[in-house]
Specification:
The protein is of the alpha/beta class. 50% of the residues lie in helices and 13% in strands. Helix 4 runs parallel beside helix 5.
Length: 220
């Protein structure tokens, strides 16, 4: 039985990290919207060229293109046993399209919930390498001499990680996430996980919930 997982959660909630861990744990691909879009553009497919035009204008990729990009990715052979989606769906229309894509395979939906003040603290303290883009580990962020552990580059704060920008991003997320959560919340295959725990405890809670829901799905 395929294991199809959707990760939901606010910026800074840790869903990308946990998606990668889940993918390694279950031996299925972790698929992020950012990676999909960049890959489509680099591949130079018809779809990729359409995406590039939109991105070059500085516009957000709309539902139609996003749905088509995800459908193309999920049709590849490596998703036969399942996948972990990070960053899709973001709108109710995308969620309804995903339901049709997976059809009778079912869908496990995990929301990582973290209070806004903690998200602001995490994101506003985040530093990335100016050279290679790696996000620094917390212990490496303090001090003027801090440097990227990967390439030795300078660690800087992203402009969209300033506190006032973070709070606006969280407001936008809450507005967009409400109909998505309403779409999934009543399903027996939906769980909310406390994201205030350590990353290891969060992973244990997610893996436990996924295992429980997958087992229940097999029995139906």
């Amino acid at each position: 039985m395929a294991l199809d997982i959707v990760m939901l959660g606010p910026p800074g909630g840790g869903k990308g990290t946990q998606a990668g861990r889940l993918a390694r744990h279950y031996g299925i691909p972790a698929i992020s919207t950012g990676d999909m879009l960049r890959e489509a553009v680099q591949a130079g497919t018809d779809l990729g060229r359409q995406v590039k035009v939109v991105m070059d204008r500085g516009d957000l990729v709309g539902d139609d293109l996003m749905i088509a990009t995800v459908r193309e990715r999920l049709n590849r052979g490596d998703t036969a046993n399942g996948f972990v989606l990070d960053g899709f769906p973001r709108t109710l229309r995308q969620a309804e399209a995903l339901d049709r894509m997976v059809n009778e395979r079912g869908l496990v939906v995990i929301e990582i919930a973290v209070p806004a003040d903690e998200l602001v603290r995490r994101l506003s303290s985040r530093r990335i390498c100016r050279g290679c883009g790696t996000i620094a580990e917390p212990a490496a962020r303090a001090g003027d001499a801090a440097a990227c552990a990967r390439c030795g580059g300078t660690l800087v704060q992203r402009s969209d990680d300033r506190e006032e920008v973070v709070r606006e991003r969280l407001n936008v997320y809450e507005t967009n996430a409400r109909p998505l959560l309403d779409h999934y919340r009543s399903r027996p295959s939906f769980r909310t996980i406390d994201g205030l725990q350590s990353p290891d405890r969060v992973f244990e809670a997610i893996a436990g919930a996924v295992g429980e829901m997958a087992t229940a799905g097999q029995k139906r």
